[in-house]
Amino acid sequence: MSKLVIVGTIAFDAIETPFGQTDKILGGAATYIGLAASHYSVDAALVSVVGGDFPQNHLDLLTDKGLNTQGVEIKAEGKTFFWKGRYHNDMNTRDTLATELNVLADFKPVVPESYRSAEVVLLGNLHPLVQLEVIAQMTDPKILMLDTMNFWMEHAWEDLLKVMAKVNVISINDEEARQLTGEYSLVRAAKRIYEMGPQYVIIKKGEHGALLFHKHDMFYAPALPLEEVFDPTGAGDTFAGGFAGYLAQNKNYSFENMKTAVIHGSALASFCVEEFGTKRLERIESASLAERLKQFKQLTQFDI
Amino acid sequence: MSKLVIVGTIAFDAIETPFGQTDKILGGAATYIGLAASHYSVDAALVSVVGGDFPQNHLDLLTDKGLNTQGVEIKAEGKTFFWKGRYHNDMNTRDTLATELNVLADFKPVVPESYRSAEVVLLGNLHPLVQLEVIAQMTDPKILMLDTMNFWMEHAWEDLLKVMAKVNVISINDEEARQLTGEYSLVRAAKRIYEMGPQYVIIKKGEHGALLFHKHDMFYAPALPLEEVFDPTGAGDTFAGGFAGYLAQNKNYSFENMKTAVIHGSALASFCVEEFGTKRLERIESASLAERLKQFKQLTQFDI
Question: CA of B167, closest CA in chain A: separation in Å?
Fold first, then answer.
């Protein structure tokens, strides 16, 4: 079975949406990515850090999904990363109400020995220096996929450029692509990003779907139009996890296969937003996923 | 050859974009719709009104494209409708700098006798009462398609509801769909719009493409990602014209055929924005259109 390395936060989130609010629930980029990737025939390892306050049942949930947590350091004396946010009525914008780095502040990622030969590595949103340390531990990666956000553009620009120079695939949202390149047109932004390193550029547009660029090829995956977006938290990570999981399973890194991978990521993300946090992701059955993939087909296919 | 009736403005536009500005150039909903529809094997008649200041060469342009202008009244003593607008840097929002109704103020549309049996009627953006008068003159329409905008929601709500109750297809943008229904989710908005009359709902999302809804079916057509949007004026009308022209040509009003019609509209709109006003639309060759349709296919098709 193909191996997949996932680095990112494992966290507590507290979320407020127009529909309600949660106490500290399971969250973090690596959590969402891992739960999404667990739908594919891959041997996926999470590389992250939590504090002594992190409940065993959350870790059990991850291992029950077949995710390897050997690379999840537990700092007994520390506290788990915490994020609190509030979504506006449009569900497209949010305010961060609290960010407590805690054990993340001095996180040194260690990829378990037996996963260092993995072909696919997903560098979830984290400090670029942490992402670089993971890259340095891999022996022969074929796909290094970077997920990042505007925070690092503003606070760790030089380090971010170093990671970008090393990866093949980047996944960012439309506003971040514009901020990164100074280009409003996403076609132009993608071309500028090629010059920074990644040969494949995924630009996420929330409810408007996602674009995949490679050289002169483009692919447009819609988001599934929904009656209700209950909680968008983790949708981007879920998308990335589905994409990387599908790619790793097939070990086919062609543009054509990446198109299908983008649809898998979009389908999983469409589940993610249906309930608070990871709730819906935790119980997607493979028949439901297959059904949703068919909906994407119907949504986009036409004769000319 | 199938007949198509198009009602809408024929106008002068003065446009400012970040790329430059124009004097009074040929514009108007019926103009863009007609130029788009002229790419199909349909006998299309324009129903509109212009003033004595409207140059013969503009009318010649329309007739040279095979459009019937018998229903375009020329009020020699009046002035042609004039709109002036300025686009912001993002090209998605604009300010209206001037609107002079002129001859439109007391426009009584007359559909030429020989076109009253047309199966497809496109009611371009105009006062709902004018649209109603056109509907009343048709003998056996199969597709009444309404294009409208927020202005009429604010200034002629009751009349707009009357038109909506009579049409099968409506084409509006996302913000207008939300304003019309009070629903943020476009899926819910479409359902509310069904209750107002139209069985087919097209929601245009500018650079994010367009959605087609019918009962529980949905179709998502992307907009072609472009390096540069030079002038968005008329893109929505061009979209509607391509959609209606394709439908009328085939006389096939199934959801499946409407999906293809949406792609045709999107392809023509992608040309429209490449130059100021109608310039690019005036010289689209059929090979270029076929090539662009193929690009839409490549942009959206995938295997699962």
Answer: 24
Q: What is the ipTM for the molecules in this complex?
A: 0.92
Tens of pLDDT along B19-34? 899 999 999 999 999 9
Q: Which of B184, B211, B260 sits opposite A304 (nearest CB)?
A: B260
Distance from CA of B80 to the nearest CA of A (A): 35
Contact at CB, B220 and A222, closer than 8 angstroms: yes
Give the C-alpha separation, B294 to A70, whole Å: 48
The domain that holds A112 is classified in CATH as: 3.40.1190.20
Residue B261 CA, chain-centre distance (Å), reads 13
Residue A186: domain span: 2-300
pLDDT at B93 over 90: no
How many domains is chain B partitioned into structurally?
A: 1
Q: Of the candidates B187, B211, B293, which has its C-beta nearest A227's C-beta?
A: B187
Closest CB to A225: pick one of B218, B296, B300.
B218
A219 vs B260: CB contact, 8 Å cut-off?
no
Strand partners, B100: B82
Reported as a single tens digit per residue, the pLDDT across B135-194 is: 999 999 999 999 999 999 999 999 999 999 999 999 999 999 999 999 999 999 999 999
pLDDT digits (tens, 9 = 90+) for A164-192: 999 999 999 999 999 999 999 999 999 99
DSSP sequence for A162-213:
HHHHH-SEEEEEHHHHHHHHS-SSHHHHHHHHHHHS-SEEEEE-GGG-EEEE
